[in-house]
Design brief:
The protein is mostly helical. It contains 19 helices and eleven strands. The strands form five sheets. It has a three-stranded mixed beta sheet, covered by helices on one side. It has a two-stranded antiparallel sheet with strand order 4-5. α3 runs parallel beside α11, α6 packs across α8 and α16 crosses α18. About 30% of the residues are buried.
Protein backbone atom coordinates (compact mmCIF):
# COMPACT_ATOMS: atom_id res chain seq x y z
CA UNK A 1 0.00 0.00 0.00
CA UNK A 2 2.80 2.36 0.95
CA UNK A 3 4.65 1.56 -2.29
CA UNK A 4 1.54 2.20 -4.36
CA UNK A 5 0.87 5.45 -2.53
CA UNK A 6 4.47 6.58 -2.99
CA UNK A 7 4.40 5.76 -6.66
CA UNK A 8 1.17 7.67 -7.07
CA UNK A 9 2.56 10.67 -5.24
CA UNK A 10 5.69 10.52 -7.33
CA UNK A 11 3.68 10.40 -10.55
CA UNK A 12 1.55 13.29 -9.37
CA UNK A 13 4.63 15.37 -8.51
CA UNK A 14 6.21 14.55 -11.86
CA UNK A 15 3.02 15.50 -13.64
CA UNK A 16 2.86 18.79 -11.77
CA UNK A 17 6.49 19.54 -12.65
CA UNK A 18 5.94 18.75 -16.31
CA UNK A 19 2.80 20.86 -16.33
CA UNK A 20 4.54 23.74 -14.58
CA UNK A 21 7.47 23.46 -16.99
CA UNK A 22 5.13 23.52 -19.95
CA UNK A 23 3.28 26.49 -18.53
CA UNK A 24 6.44 28.46 -17.86
CA UNK A 25 7.86 27.77 -21.33
CA UNK A 26 4.71 28.06 -23.40
CA UNK A 27 6.13 31.24 -24.97
CA UNK A 28 9.75 30.07 -25.16
CA UNK A 29 11.26 30.07 -28.66
CA UNK A 30 10.96 26.78 -30.53
CA UNK A 31 13.79 24.69 -31.92
CA UNK A 32 12.84 26.00 -35.37
CA UNK A 33 13.25 29.60 -34.17
CA UNK A 34 16.63 28.76 -32.69
CA UNK A 35 17.72 27.17 -35.96
CA UNK A 36 16.93 30.26 -38.04
CA UNK A 37 17.99 32.90 -35.50
CA UNK A 38 20.45 35.49 -36.77
CA UNK A 39 21.95 38.41 -34.80
CA UNK A 40 20.99 41.94 -35.71
CA UNK A 41 23.70 43.55 -37.79
CA UNK A 42 24.33 47.19 -38.57
CA UNK A 43 24.07 48.47 -42.13
CA UNK A 44 27.33 50.02 -43.28
CA UNK A 45 27.61 52.95 -45.67
CA UNK A 46 30.88 53.21 -47.62
CA UNK A 47 32.42 55.83 -49.87
CA UNK A 48 33.40 55.06 -53.49
CA UNK A 49 36.72 53.55 -52.34
CA UNK A 50 35.09 51.26 -49.77
CA UNK A 51 35.95 53.42 -46.73
CA UNK A 52 33.37 53.33 -43.96
CA UNK A 53 31.34 56.53 -43.68
CA UNK A 54 28.60 55.58 -41.22
CA UNK A 55 26.55 52.78 -39.70
CA UNK A 56 22.78 52.49 -39.38
CA UNK A 57 21.63 50.17 -36.64
CA UNK A 58 19.29 49.16 -33.87
CA UNK A 59 22.30 47.45 -32.28
CA UNK A 60 25.73 48.26 -33.65
CA UNK A 61 27.22 44.87 -34.44
CA UNK A 62 29.46 43.14 -37.00
CA UNK A 63 29.70 39.35 -36.50
CA UNK A 64 33.07 37.62 -36.73
CA UNK A 65 33.78 33.91 -37.15
CA UNK A 66 35.39 32.37 -34.09
CA UNK A 67 37.88 30.29 -36.06
CA UNK A 68 39.46 33.51 -37.32
CA UNK A 69 40.25 34.63 -33.76
CA UNK A 70 43.31 33.63 -31.70
CA UNK A 71 42.46 30.86 -29.21
CA UNK A 72 43.18 33.08 -26.22
CA UNK A 73 40.29 35.35 -27.22
CA UNK A 74 37.64 32.69 -26.69
CA UNK A 75 39.55 31.33 -23.67
CA UNK A 76 39.34 34.74 -21.97
CA UNK A 77 35.54 34.59 -22.04
CA UNK A 78 35.40 30.98 -20.92
CA UNK A 79 37.85 31.64 -18.06
CA UNK A 80 35.82 34.45 -16.50
CA UNK A 81 32.27 33.56 -17.48
CA UNK A 82 31.99 29.77 -17.52
CA UNK A 83 35.09 27.66 -16.89
CA UNK A 84 33.10 24.40 -17.28
CA UNK A 85 31.63 25.56 -20.59
CA UNK A 86 33.10 22.70 -22.61
CA UNK A 87 31.98 20.09 -20.05
CA UNK A 88 28.35 20.94 -19.24
CA UNK A 89 25.18 20.73 -21.35
CA UNK A 90 23.86 24.22 -20.85
CA UNK A 91 23.53 24.25 -17.06
CA UNK A 92 26.18 24.17 -14.34
CA UNK A 93 24.97 23.08 -10.91
CA UNK A 94 28.34 24.01 -9.42
CA UNK A 95 28.12 27.49 -10.86
CA UNK A 96 24.58 27.93 -9.60
CA UNK A 97 25.49 26.82 -6.05
CA UNK A 98 28.65 28.96 -6.07
CA UNK A 99 26.68 32.04 -7.14
CA UNK A 100 24.12 31.40 -4.42
CA UNK A 101 26.84 31.08 -1.74
CA UNK A 102 28.69 34.18 -2.91
CA UNK A 103 25.45 36.17 -2.70
CA UNK A 104 25.33 35.52 1.05
CA UNK A 105 26.48 38.78 2.73
CA UNK A 106 30.22 38.66 3.38
CA UNK A 107 30.87 35.39 1.56
CA UNK A 108 31.95 37.01 -1.70
CA UNK A 109 34.67 38.97 0.08
CA UNK A 110 35.66 35.94 2.14
CA UNK A 111 35.99 33.68 -0.90
CA UNK A 112 37.40 36.45 -3.11
CA UNK A 113 34.81 35.75 -5.83
CA UNK A 114 32.40 37.88 -7.81
CA UNK A 115 28.70 37.27 -7.27
CA UNK A 116 27.57 36.61 -10.85
CA UNK A 117 24.25 35.07 -11.68
CA UNK A 118 25.23 31.41 -11.89
CA UNK A 119 24.24 31.38 -15.57
CA UNK A 120 26.36 29.52 -18.08
CA UNK A 121 27.48 31.12 -21.32
CA UNK A 122 24.71 29.18 -23.07
CA UNK A 123 22.09 30.50 -20.64
CA UNK A 124 23.34 34.04 -21.12
CA UNK A 125 23.23 33.58 -24.88
CA UNK A 126 19.66 32.28 -24.62
CA UNK A 127 18.69 35.42 -22.71
CA UNK A 128 20.34 37.75 -25.23
CA UNK A 129 18.96 35.89 -28.25
CA UNK A 130 15.38 35.91 -27.10
CA UNK A 131 15.18 38.68 -24.53
CA UNK A 132 11.57 39.56 -25.40
CA UNK A 133 10.31 36.04 -24.72
CA UNK A 134 12.63 35.35 -21.77
CA UNK A 135 12.98 38.80 -20.22
CA UNK A 136 15.83 40.23 -18.17
CA UNK A 137 14.12 40.41 -14.77
CA UNK A 138 15.79 38.38 -11.99
CA UNK A 139 13.02 35.93 -11.29
CA UNK A 140 12.66 32.16 -11.09
CA UNK A 141 10.43 32.14 -14.19
CA UNK A 142 13.12 33.85 -16.22
CA UNK A 143 15.74 31.37 -15.00
CA UNK A 144 13.57 28.42 -15.98
CA UNK A 145 12.95 29.86 -19.45
CA UNK A 146 16.63 30.59 -19.79
CA UNK A 147 17.52 27.01 -18.85
CA UNK A 148 15.00 25.51 -21.28
CA UNK A 149 16.24 27.57 -24.23
CA UNK A 150 19.87 26.92 -23.26
CA UNK A 151 19.30 23.17 -23.40
CA UNK A 152 17.64 23.53 -26.80
CA UNK A 153 20.58 25.62 -28.05
CA UNK A 154 23.01 22.95 -26.84
CA UNK A 155 21.01 20.36 -28.78
CA UNK A 156 21.19 22.39 -31.98
CA UNK A 157 24.70 23.90 -31.98
CA UNK A 158 28.24 22.89 -31.13
CA UNK A 159 30.21 24.56 -28.33
CA UNK A 160 32.28 26.86 -30.55
CA UNK A 161 29.16 27.87 -32.47
CA UNK A 162 27.53 28.81 -29.16
CA UNK A 163 30.60 30.75 -28.02
CA UNK A 164 30.80 32.50 -31.40
CA UNK A 165 27.17 33.60 -31.16
CA UNK A 166 27.78 34.75 -27.57
CA UNK A 167 30.79 36.97 -28.21
CA UNK A 168 29.04 38.43 -31.26
CA UNK A 169 25.83 39.18 -29.35
CA UNK A 170 26.68 40.68 -25.97
CA UNK A 171 27.10 44.35 -25.05
CA UNK A 172 30.64 45.59 -24.41
CA UNK A 173 29.62 49.06 -23.27
CA UNK A 174 28.90 52.37 -25.02
CA UNK A 175 26.33 50.66 -27.24
CA UNK A 176 29.02 48.51 -28.90
CA UNK A 177 27.62 45.03 -29.43
CA UNK A 178 29.70 42.15 -30.65
CA UNK A 179 33.43 41.65 -30.30
CA UNK A 180 34.33 43.12 -33.71
CA UNK A 181 32.60 46.42 -33.05
CA UNK A 182 34.05 46.59 -29.53
CA UNK A 183 37.57 45.86 -30.77
CA UNK A 184 37.35 48.52 -33.48
CA UNK A 185 36.12 51.21 -31.07
CA UNK A 186 38.25 50.35 -28.04
CA UNK A 187 41.50 49.50 -29.83
CA UNK A 188 41.11 50.72 -33.41
CA UNK A 189 41.73 47.29 -34.95
CA UNK A 190 39.83 44.14 -35.95
CA UNK A 191 39.17 41.40 -33.41
CA UNK A 192 41.51 39.00 -35.22
CA UNK A 193 44.42 41.24 -34.10
CA UNK A 194 43.56 41.32 -30.39
CA UNK A 195 46.34 40.41 -27.97
CA UNK A 196 45.68 38.55 -24.67
CA UNK A 197 45.47 41.75 -22.60
CA UNK A 198 42.90 43.25 -24.96
CA UNK A 199 40.90 40.03 -25.09
CA UNK A 200 40.86 39.91 -21.29
CA UNK A 201 39.65 43.52 -21.08
CA UNK A 202 36.75 42.79 -23.43
CA UNK A 203 35.85 39.64 -21.48
CA UNK A 204 35.80 41.73 -18.31
CA UNK A 205 33.75 44.51 -19.91
CA UNK A 206 30.66 42.37 -20.51
CA UNK A 207 30.17 41.83 -16.76
CA UNK A 208 29.13 45.45 -16.32
CA UNK A 209 29.01 47.20 -19.72
CA UNK A 210 29.98 50.82 -19.36
CA UNK A 211 31.25 50.44 -15.79
CA UNK A 212 34.25 48.31 -16.73
CA UNK A 213 35.30 50.77 -19.40
CA UNK A 214 38.77 52.32 -19.57
CA UNK A 215 37.14 55.61 -20.56
CA UNK A 216 34.93 55.67 -17.45
CA UNK A 217 36.75 53.75 -14.70
CA UNK A 218 40.30 52.86 -15.77
CA UNK A 219 41.40 51.67 -12.32
CA UNK A 220 38.55 49.19 -11.93
CA UNK A 221 38.87 48.12 -15.56
CA UNK A 222 42.56 47.34 -15.09
CA UNK A 223 41.79 45.31 -11.96
CA UNK A 224 39.18 43.22 -13.73
CA UNK A 225 41.30 42.75 -16.85
CA UNK A 226 44.17 41.51 -14.71
CA UNK A 227 41.79 39.23 -12.83
CA UNK A 228 40.75 37.65 -16.13
CA UNK A 229 44.39 37.20 -17.14
CA UNK A 230 45.02 35.46 -13.82
CA UNK A 231 42.06 33.13 -14.41
CA UNK A 232 43.40 32.33 -17.88
CA UNK A 233 46.74 31.29 -16.32
CA UNK A 234 45.04 29.28 -13.56
CA UNK A 235 42.91 27.39 -16.07
CA UNK A 236 45.85 26.63 -18.38
CA UNK A 237 44.95 29.01 -21.22
CA UNK A 238 47.93 31.35 -20.82
CA UNK A 239 51.55 30.57 -19.83
CA UNK A 240 52.34 31.86 -16.37
CA UNK A 241 55.58 33.40 -17.61
CA UNK A 242 53.52 35.78 -19.80
CA UNK A 243 51.21 36.99 -17.03
CA UNK A 244 53.33 39.94 -15.88
CA UNK A 245 53.85 41.10 -19.45
CA UNK A 246 50.16 41.28 -20.32
CA UNK A 247 49.17 42.76 -16.96
CA UNK A 248 51.60 45.60 -17.63
CA UNK A 249 49.95 46.52 -20.93
CA UNK A 250 48.33 50.00 -20.91
CA UNK A 251 44.60 50.46 -21.38
CA UNK A 252 43.22 52.44 -24.34
CA UNK A 253 42.79 56.12 -23.53
CA UNK A 254 40.64 57.33 -26.42
CA UNK A 255 37.82 55.99 -28.54
CA UNK A 256 38.54 55.03 -32.10
CA UNK A 257 36.31 55.57 -35.11
CA UNK A 258 34.74 58.75 -33.71
CA UNK A 259 34.73 60.32 -37.18
CA UNK A 260 32.40 57.58 -38.46
CA UNK A 261 28.92 59.04 -38.83
CA UNK A 262 30.10 62.64 -38.33
CA UNK A 263 32.16 63.38 -41.44
CA UNK A 264 29.16 63.57 -43.81
CA UNK A 265 25.97 63.63 -41.69
CA UNK A 266 23.78 65.40 -44.27
CA UNK A 267 24.83 62.99 -47.00
CA UNK A 268 24.27 59.97 -44.72
CA UNK A 269 20.81 61.19 -43.74
CA UNK A 270 19.92 61.68 -47.40
CA UNK A 271 21.07 58.11 -48.15
CA UNK A 272 19.22 56.78 -45.09
CA UNK A 273 15.87 58.30 -46.04
CA UNK A 274 16.28 57.02 -49.61
CA UNK A 275 17.03 53.48 -48.42
CA UNK A 276 14.39 53.41 -45.70
CA UNK A 277 11.62 53.85 -48.26
CA UNK A 278 12.88 50.71 -50.00
CA UNK A 279 13.97 48.43 -47.14
CA UNK A 280 11.94 49.63 -44.16
CA UNK A 281 13.02 48.23 -40.73
CA UNK A 282 15.40 45.75 -42.40
CA UNK A 283 17.69 48.68 -43.10
CA UNK A 284 18.73 48.74 -39.43
CA UNK A 285 19.29 45.05 -38.63
CA UNK A 286 20.11 43.05 -41.79
CA UNK A 287 23.75 44.05 -42.18
CA UNK A 288 23.38 45.66 -45.60
CA UNK A 289 26.48 47.10 -47.27
CA UNK A 290 25.78 50.33 -49.13
CA UNK A 291 28.35 51.75 -51.53
CA UNK A 292 28.00 55.41 -52.46
CA UNK A 293 29.77 57.87 -54.74
CA UNK A 294 31.12 60.03 -51.89
CA UNK A 295 34.87 60.61 -51.65
CA UNK A 296 35.89 60.90 -48.00
CA UNK A 297 39.04 62.86 -48.78
CA UNK A 298 37.10 65.42 -50.83
CA UNK A 299 34.45 65.54 -48.10
CA UNK A 300 37.08 66.34 -45.45
CA UNK A 301 38.61 69.01 -47.67
CA UNK A 302 35.19 70.51 -48.39
CA UNK A 303 34.48 70.71 -44.68
CA UNK A 304 37.82 72.42 -44.02
CA UNK A 305 37.18 74.98 -46.76
CA UNK A 306 33.63 75.68 -45.57
CA UNK A 307 34.74 76.05 -41.95
CA UNK A 308 37.38 78.53 -43.08
CA UNK A 309 34.86 80.46 -45.17
CA UNK A 310 32.29 80.67 -42.39
CA UNK A 311 34.93 81.85 -39.92
CA UNK A 312 36.25 84.48 -42.36
CA UNK A 313 32.78 85.95 -42.97
CA UNK A 314 31.88 86.04 -39.29
CA UNK A 315 35.20 87.70 -38.44
CA UNK A 316 34.68 90.46 -41.02
CA UNK A 317 34.21 93.98 -39.61
CA UNK A 318 30.55 94.86 -39.28
CA UNK A 319 29.24 91.29 -39.51
CA UNK A 320 26.22 90.71 -37.29
CA UNK A 321 24.77 87.25 -36.90
CA UNK A 322 21.14 86.48 -36.18
CA UNK A 323 20.32 86.89 -32.49
CA UNK A 324 17.28 84.62 -32.43
CA UNK A 325 16.54 81.16 -33.78
CA UNK A 326 13.15 80.23 -35.17
CA UNK A 327 11.65 77.51 -37.34
CA UNK A 328 10.44 78.41 -40.81
CA UNK A 329 8.58 76.22 -43.28
CA UNK A 330 9.50 76.32 -46.94
CA UNK A 331 6.91 74.99 -49.43
CA UNK A 332 7.87 71.49 -50.55
CA UNK A 333 11.14 71.53 -48.61
CA UNK A 334 10.18 70.79 -45.02
CA UNK A 335 11.15 72.89 -42.05
CA UNK A 336 14.37 74.86 -41.78
CA UNK A 337 15.75 76.46 -38.65
CA UNK A 338 17.36 79.87 -38.65
CA UNK A 339 20.50 79.67 -36.55
CA UNK A 340 22.47 82.35 -34.70
CA UNK A 341 25.40 81.79 -37.04
CA UNK A 342 25.94 81.82 -40.78
CA UNK A 343 24.88 78.75 -42.76
CA UNK A 344 25.99 77.39 -46.11
CA UNK A 345 25.88 74.44 -48.47
CA UNK A 346 28.38 72.71 -50.73
CA UNK A 347 28.14 70.04 -53.42
CA UNK A 348 31.01 68.65 -55.49
CA UNK A 349 29.99 66.59 -58.54
CA UNK A 350 32.00 64.52 -60.95
CA UNK A 351 31.28 66.43 -64.19
CA UNK A 352 31.53 63.27 -66.31
CA UNK A 353 29.10 61.12 -64.32
CA UNK A 354 27.17 63.43 -62.00
CA UNK A 355 28.39 61.40 -59.01
CA UNK A 356 28.32 63.29 -55.72
CA UNK A 357 31.86 63.43 -54.31
CA UNK A 358 31.23 65.80 -51.39
CA UNK A 359 28.09 67.25 -49.84
CA UNK A 360 27.56 69.66 -46.96
CA UNK A 361 24.00 70.63 -46.11
CA UNK A 362 24.71 72.95 -43.22
CA UNK A 363 27.08 73.86 -40.48
CA UNK A 364 25.93 71.62 -37.62
CA UNK A 365 23.69 68.63 -38.31
CA UNK A 366 22.79 68.19 -34.64
CA UNK A 367 21.65 71.79 -34.42
CA UNK A 368 19.86 71.96 -37.77
CA UNK A 369 19.05 68.85 -39.80
CA UNK A 370 17.62 70.86 -42.69
CA UNK A 371 19.71 69.97 -45.73
CA UNK A 372 20.41 73.17 -47.59
CA UNK A 373 22.09 71.23 -50.39
CA UNK A 374 19.07 69.07 -51.27
CA UNK A 375 16.01 70.61 -49.59
CA UNK A 376 16.44 74.36 -49.95
CA UNK A 377 14.54 75.92 -52.87
CA UNK A 378 17.00 78.40 -54.40
CA UNK A 379 17.26 80.14 -57.72
CA UNK A 380 20.14 78.79 -59.79
CA UNK A 381 21.27 82.38 -60.43
CA UNK A 382 24.65 82.86 -62.05
CA UNK A 383 25.62 79.24 -61.47
CA UNK A 384 23.51 78.49 -64.58
CA UNK A 385 25.64 80.69 -66.85
CA UNK A 386 28.30 78.05 -67.57
CA UNK A 387 25.60 75.92 -69.20
CA UNK A 388 24.69 78.81 -71.49
CA UNK A 389 28.33 79.35 -72.44
CA UNK A 390 28.90 75.60 -72.90
CA UNK A 391 25.94 75.41 -75.29
CA UNK A 392 27.33 78.37 -77.25
CA UNK A 393 30.80 76.87 -77.55
CA UNK A 394 29.25 73.55 -78.61
CA UNK A 395 27.62 75.48 -81.48
CA UNK A 396 30.87 77.03 -82.73
CA UNK A 397 31.07 80.26 -80.70
CA UNK A 398 34.54 80.88 -79.24
CA UNK A 399 35.67 82.36 -75.93
CA UNK A 400 37.15 85.28 -77.93
CA UNK A 401 33.82 86.24 -79.50
CA UNK A 402 32.92 89.87 -78.67
CA UNK A 403 29.47 90.90 -77.46
CA UNK A 404 28.21 94.18 -76.03
CA UNK A 405 27.25 94.75 -72.45
CA UNK A 406 24.45 97.27 -73.04
CA UNK A 407 20.82 97.82 -71.98
CA UNK A 408 18.57 95.00 -73.15
CA UNK A 409 14.79 94.61 -73.30
CA UNK A 410 13.12 91.30 -74.17
CA UNK A 411 9.42 91.11 -74.99
CA UNK A 412 7.82 88.10 -73.29
CA UNK A 413 4.84 86.08 -74.50
CA UNK A 414 2.57 87.50 -71.82
CA UNK A 415 3.18 91.04 -73.09
CA UNK A 416 5.57 92.09 -70.35
CA UNK A 417 9.14 93.22 -70.88
CA UNK A 418 12.18 91.60 -69.25
CA UNK A 419 15.13 93.99 -68.80
CA UNK A 420 18.09 92.22 -67.15
CA UNK A 421 20.50 94.30 -65.09
CA UNK A 422 23.99 93.65 -63.81
CA UNK A 423 25.24 93.67 -60.22
CA UNK A 424 27.32 96.70 -61.28
CA UNK A 425 24.85 99.35 -62.52
CA UNK A 426 27.30 100.56 -65.20
CA UNK A 427 27.58 98.83 -68.58
CA UNK A 428 31.01 97.74 -69.77
CA UNK A 429 30.53 97.91 -73.53
CA UNK A 430 32.33 95.38 -75.76
CA UNK A 431 33.61 92.27 -73.94
CA UNK A 432 34.90 88.89 -75.04
CA UNK A 433 32.81 86.00 -73.82
CA UNK A 434 35.75 85.01 -71.64
CA UNK A 435 35.58 88.42 -69.92
CA UNK A 436 31.78 88.37 -69.76
CA UNK A 437 31.82 85.05 -67.91
CA UNK A 438 34.62 86.25 -65.65
CA UNK A 439 32.61 89.32 -64.62
CA UNK A 440 29.29 87.39 -64.60
CA UNK A 441 27.61 89.88 -66.92
CA UNK A 442 23.88 89.23 -67.02
CA UNK A 443 23.00 91.09 -70.25
CA UNK A 444 25.51 89.15 -72.34
CA UNK A 445 24.44 85.82 -70.83
CA UNK A 446 20.82 86.53 -71.83
CA UNK A 447 21.80 87.67 -75.34
CA UNK A 448 24.00 84.60 -75.80
CA UNK A 449 21.21 82.29 -74.69
CA UNK A 450 18.77 83.88 -77.13
CA UNK A 451 21.31 83.70 -79.97
CA UNK A 452 22.08 80.01 -79.40
CA UNK A 453 18.45 79.18 -78.72
CA UNK A 454 16.94 78.26 -75.40
CA UNK A 455 16.14 74.66 -76.48
CA UNK A 456 19.87 74.13 -77.08
CA UNK A 457 20.71 75.55 -73.67
CA UNK A 458 18.09 73.33 -71.99
CA UNK A 459 19.42 70.27 -73.80
Amino acid sequence: MVVVTGAAMGSLAAGLLVGAWGSVCRDCPSIAQIYVWEPKQSTKIFDHDGKLIAELFEERRTPVEIETLPDYVKHAFVAVEDKRFYRHHGFSLRGFIRAAIVRVPGMGLLLNRRAGGGSTITQQLARHMFEQQIGFEHRLTRKLKELKVAQDIEAVYGKDEILEAYINQVNYGHGWRGIETASQHYFGKPAIELDPAEAAMLAAAINAPGRYSPFINPVLTRQWRNLVLGLMVRQGYLPRKELARWRAEPLPTERHGTEIGTIAPYFVEWVRTTLESRYGPDLYNQGLQVYTTLDLEQQRYARTVMDSGWARIEAAPGYRGEKLSRAITLPGAGTATETPYIQGAFIALDPATGDIRALIGGRDFQDSKFNRATQALRQAGSTFKPFVYAAAIAHGVTAATVMYDAPLAVELEDGTTYAPKNYDPDFRGPLTLREALKFSVNTIAVKLGLDVGLPAVVQ
